[in-house]
Amino acid sequence: SWPGCPAPPLYRSDPRGYTVGLAIDIGA
Amino acid sequence: GGSITIAAATVDTATVSDLRGLETSIRLNGIPQNTSARVEGDPLSGSQRISLGIPRGPLQTVSARVTWPAIAFSIGVDEQMAAKVTWPREWVPEVAKFLAPSQGIQSDNEIFKAFVAKTTEGRLRRTPIYLAAKDLVRRTIMEFRNVDSQTLVREGQGTIRGFRLQGALSSTGALSVTPGDMVCTCVAVLRAAGIPARPVIGIYSGSGSNPDTKLPKDRKTLCVWAEFNLPGCGWVPFDPYEMRGRGLPQANVNQPWKWFGTIKQMNRRVGLAYDFAPFNHGMIRDWPAGWVWTVSGQTTAPFRLVDATAPLMVSRGQI
User: Which residues pair with residue B162 across a beta bridge?
Assistant: First the structure.
């Protein structure tokens, strides 16, 4: 099982994998 | 001299992220730098903090890119079981902190207490917490006549300035609100009712061919939803903007509702932050986007800085 699996009555299904993140630009 | 700080939700009902796979890069005035990010907090606490240091010196531009692996799940609730969960005598501390008011979510204001009292007619504590939350969210959504779907201020080319927000209190008197405002208001109402709740700022992958969402079908973007805690079970996600319409006023509270608890599309969203401007001592600047910067230790610069955010989300498919 994956970390922190919720306890019933909540159920997970259909996992999808991603690479996520942010690209940030700061300028004066 | 300053920092960029990003929040990463590490363990939630629909999101698991692993910052051991964190990759960062930074360019100062367009020149790549050797820099490493600092990751703080226990992943099992549910959220970690990624900090990038910006060295002192004359700078025109800072560009940072931060990525990590994550898994997103579809979510289902057993409605009958959920309706049997009773109110706790006391919330555990990790959860109880989401009972308190926060910037943009002024749940201690009398207007929210009065709304809860009027809506529940004194039956709040005798109603199972799941059903109470469901009806309070429905009644909050029904208060809004005009919702502007443009929740993001955009700059074009896939970059985003941030969320267009008035916050919960202003939204109660506004002619028009955004999906982000609806989230803030629903969270404020739930907190006023004594139910821990929080906004979730996340990245959305695009729905593919699924027509059953109001978010863009063909591109990734930032998105926002809400969740409340069901004692001993976990956080129940819901999306007030998606719930709106869809026969909500007549819907039977004992039946499953679309976009409340049972959300197939949650495996296309990855949670990042539980605050529009996380780790910023409650300060929300103009258009927040789930991360913050500081300059010389300050959250306001002595000159005008413009920031733009692009969500990054590469699908690795089903796992």
Answer: B153
